[in-house]
Amino acid sequence: MAPAQIHFIINPRSSGGNTGRNWQEMESAIRRGIGEFTYEFTEERGSAIAQTARAIKNKADTIVVVGGDGTVSEVVNGFFEPGLPAKKPNIVILNQGTGGDFCRTIGAPADLNLALDSIKTGRQIKVDVGRIKFIDASGQNAIRYFINVAGCGMAGEVVQAINRSSKRFGGFSYFLVSAQKLFTYRKKKLTIQVDGGRVEKHEVVTAAICNGQFFGGGMQISPGSRLGDGHFELVLIEDWNFLQSLWYSKNLYNGTIARCKGVTTRSIQKVWIESENAEDHAIIDCDGEDIGRAPLQIEIIPGAVTFRV
107 or 246, which is more confident? Predict the structure, then answer.
């Protein structure tokens, strides 16, 4: 049997830049633990997509992501680039992110030795992927894939603001920016169609389509979600005013959001969301990145990628 081909994709800016600064020491420890491997650093936002596709074409058996949720999401997007072989590698994560919401759900380690154990003997977890069709920043139709949470409304505006900042406060940044947005945010009037059913009208603070349980650096937006059950959870937060948003924030962190007034949840496989007012853009959050605006269409691809943890 040929030796396994293991390829690392490393975000040197993750963990506040510590990943890049400590890489030489990490590289030595990895070679002692698993032997030979190849690696490359991400250079800019989105570069891990092409790097992943190239690694798959080069017949990598395992892709190890050294970074956070954003890098993991880009790697998953690389699996859907055109012209790739049918056989796909496993993904292993060495969690070096600040928010770590998907990593928290799947149980990805932040410890190097545990990540090396995942490469050698980790159990396989098949994870559903969401395909999202939307309007990008240039006004063109686009497609993106997500593994954790996508949605629109205040969550999209918060993510947009955070991504324009330094993220130096990690998951707490989401809480701080959310608190600021409460003073200015106006609920979005959305048209929603679930699984090809009837068209519904909703006025929402946030609409979230959840594969994972957490977003926003530890908020339990969908504590009942399972990564490989063939369904997403659609969570609508509708009637919260300023004071209710402050009061119910504790429920977002302790996993009891479904008990709150104005919150509805349901299992879905496909959803269409459009803003009633074309000038009132509903910004899309896709795995912690602001990628564009509604209208958006999301559908599930069951068990599309395999992780080892």
Answer: 107
